[in-house]
Amino acid sequence: MNGFSLHTVDAGDVLPLRSTKNILMTFEDTDRYQLFGERADAEWAAASPLNDGYVHFGEGHRFFATAVAHEMHCVQVLRMSIANPAHPKVNYAHSAHCLNYLRVYALCNADLTLEKFDPWKGNFTENQIAQTHVCRNWEDAYDLFAENTKEWLGMGGNLRTPD
């Protein structure tokens, strides 16, 4: 991974991105990422990083999840809990963990962008609200995950398998 190797890695370590520049991202209502249907399933699957954002680092190729991957996993879990509560993978404790994890994530990042938003007005398809936020470049992060996964597979590793 371009010379980046952690010999000792502890909780709280942060992966370095090639670019630390933030990007502008417009948040807006969309007809994409719905709860139900094949199109929704495909869009949600494409929103997750390669190998679900799991990475391997250090001399022992230790196995880690990244916070952004954990967050996206939790979004997927909550979607499944709403869209298909009878699915065998739906688990109340897991859903509760994910809801709390996303709550903590929101507090940790404390985005203070002012938004024109009234949840009691509008139907989220007409008069859509678009608001620009300053964000980390998540595409750079996903590229880093993909590069790490390809290196791991090149060493004979398996997807999503801890060492």
TrEMBL record:
<dbReference type="GO" id="GO:0043386">
    <property type="term" value="P:mycotoxin biosynthetic process"/>
</dbReference>
<dbReference type="InterPro" id="IPR021765">
    <property type="entry name" value="UstYa-like"/>
</dbReference>
<dbReference type="Pfam" id="PF11807">
    <property type="entry name" value="UstYa"/>
</dbReference>
<dbReference type="GO" id="GO:0016491">
    <property type="term" value="F:oxidoreductase activity"/>
</dbReference>
<comment type="pathway">
    <text>Mycotoxin biosynthesis.</text>
</comment>
<comment type="similarity">
    <text>Belongs to the ustYa family.</text>
</comment>
<keyword id="KW-0560">Oxidoreductase</keyword>
<protein>
    <submittedName>
        <fullName>Uncharacterized protein</fullName>
    </submittedName>
</protein>
